[in-house]
């Protein structure tokens, strides 16, 4: 049975998403194949991921996130910022919100296209050789690189994501280079299985890893430049404990439309 569904497209620093208002539960049994089709850049709408905005008890809304490979994903920071903008544009919220995601509650504020999103606290960071491994809502591997603009991120990221240590569960692979007062970041994302223009949980992981690398403490705000735009990560750091974590950056409406799907 074919039907048309309404969708909205948003992007956060080039990380792009399909957003669907699913408060009526019209897509309650969305399939992996359908998500993969909608995210396909040739045969569907095209996006790094898809999100359903749904009702939930006590909080403003629920964010249900799917990677472009069709599978439900872990927390997506840029997706979280985009769904906050979507909720504002739908009239569900004004300039503040608390919503539910796969890793728990998140608070956020929005002013025009700038969203500040509260992220999960981090209390444990491991090392894999010289690289840092940590979980900021999604698992991340952070390694320093030289001449990052010339790096083959797909080849090197794919190799790390699929090695014997990380193959089973997958991991997002971040390459970072010092740049002025902040850092330049490029990320190979699991679930997309390619480089994306930005990664919010990756930017958060990189900021924390570099704060440890440089032995920084106290309240910090660290600029992180991704291929698609500028992000900022702030937190309070005490040793390897990171609290009051906030991801700040743009969340921009691109377009809306209808697409025919088969249910």
Automatic annotation (TrEMBL):
Protein name per Swiss-Prot or TrEMBL: Diaminopimelate epimerase
Q: Name one Pfam family in it.
A: DAP_epimerase
Q: How does it assemble?
A: Homodimer.
> What this chain does, per the record?
Catalyzes the stereoinversion of LL-2,6-diaminopimelate (L,L-DAP) to meso-diaminopimelate (meso-DAP), a precursor of L-lysine and an essential component of the bacterial peptidoglycan.
- InterPro entries per UniProt: DAP_epimerase_DapF (IPR001653)
The keyword Oxidoreductase is annotated on this UniProt entry: no
Q: What is the lineage of its organism?
A: Bacteria, Pseudomonadati, Bacteroidota, Sphingobacteriia, Sphingobacteriales
The primary site where this protein sits is cytoplasm
One annotated GO molecular function = diaminopimelate epimerase activity
Q: Which UniProt keywords apply?
A: Amino-acid biosynthesis, Cytoplasm, Isomerase, Lysine biosynthesis
Class of this enzyme: isomerase
Per its record, the protein catalyses: (2S,6S)-2,6-diaminopimelate = meso-2,6-diaminopimelate
Subcellular location field: Cytoplasm
Show which residues form the site (Could be important to modulate the pK values of the two catalytic cysteine residues).
140, 189
The catalytic site is made up of 76 (proton donor), 199 (proton acceptor)
Which family is this protein grouped under?
Belongs to the diaminopimelate epimerase family.
Question: What Gene3D superfamilies does the annotation carry?
Answer: Diaminopimelate Epimerase, Chain A, domain 1
The pathway it acts in is: Amino-acid biosynthesis; L-lysine biosynthesis via DAP pathway; DL-2,6-diaminopimelate from LL-2,6-diaminopimelate: step 1/1
Give the E.C. number(s): 5.1.1.7
Quick one: which residues bind substrate?
A: 15, 67, 77-78, 172, 189-190, 200-201
């Amino acid at each position: 049975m074919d039907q048309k569904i309404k969708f909205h497209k948003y992007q956060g620093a080039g990380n792009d998403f399909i957003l669907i208002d699913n408060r009526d539960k019209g897509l309650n049994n969305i399939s992996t194949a359908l998500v993969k089709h909608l995210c396909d850049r040739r045969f569907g709408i095209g996006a790094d991921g898809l999100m359903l905005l749904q009702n939930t008890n006590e909080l403003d809304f629920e964010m249900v996130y799917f990677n472009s490979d069709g599978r439900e994903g872990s927390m997506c920071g840029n997706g979280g910022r985009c769904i906050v903008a979507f909720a504002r544009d739908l009239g569900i919220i004004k300039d503040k919100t608390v919503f539910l995601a796969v890793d728990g509650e998140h608070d956020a504020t929005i002013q025009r296209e700038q969203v500040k999103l509260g992220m999960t606290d981090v209390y444990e960071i491991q090392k894999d050789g010289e690289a840092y491994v940590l979980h900021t809502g999604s698992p991340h591997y952070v390694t320093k690189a030289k001449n990052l603009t010339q790096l083959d991120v797909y080849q090197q990221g794919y190799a790390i994501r699929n090695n014997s240590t990380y193959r089973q569960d997958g991991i997002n692979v971040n390459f970072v280079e010092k740049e002025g007062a902040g850092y330049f970041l490029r990320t190979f994302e699991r679930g997309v299985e390619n480089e994306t223009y930005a990664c919010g949980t990756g930017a958060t992981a990189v900021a924390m890893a570099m704060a440890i690398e440089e032995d920084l403490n106290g309240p910090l705000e660290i600029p992180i430049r991704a291929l698609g735009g500028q992000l900022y990560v702030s937190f309070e750091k005490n040793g390897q404990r990171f609290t009051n974590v906030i991801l700040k950056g743009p969340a921009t409406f691109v377009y809306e439309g209808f697409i025919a799907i088969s249910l």
